[in-house]
Amino acid sequence: MGTRCGDIDPAIVTFLAQRERLGLAGIDRLLNRESGVLGLSELSSDMRVFQEAIQAGPDHPNYERSILVIKLYTLRVKQYIGAYAAAMGGLDCVVFTGGIGEKFHKGV
């Protein structure tokens, strides 16, 4: 997810409320608008930003962070595809839709 959290322990909600003194609006903001790729990278939720940094090479200030983001993102995608493929007894095709299907291209 670009800005939303992925799988979380349900106890994180009460932890955030108590420890970080967040109300429902703050928890919603954190988990739905400040997490995911944006939260991990602290740069962007747009995968093109990371592709550009990687293509620019190791001298780019966001190169290492971009490598981490892409590796973690692709790992999670592979885990989900594998889990669903196993649950369905195989698959014939995988189609990416939404922002990732529209904006993230192989080549990194």
Would you mind describing this structure in some detail?
By secondary structure, the protein is an all-alpha fold. It is 62% helix and 0% strand. The chain has 6 helices and no strands. The longest helix is centred in the last third of the chain and has 26 residues.
Strand pairing plus helix content: what structural class? mainly alpha
Number of helices: 6
Order of helices and strands: HHHHHH
Work out the strand percent: under 5%
Q: What's the N-to-C terminus distance? A: 18 Å
Counting DSSP E segments of at least 2 residues, the number of strands comes to 0
The proportion of residues forming helix, as a percent range, comes to: 55-70%
Overall residue-averaged pLDDT value = 90
**Uncertain spans:** none
CA radius of gyration: 16 Å
Largest sheet: none
Principal-axes geometry comes out as flat
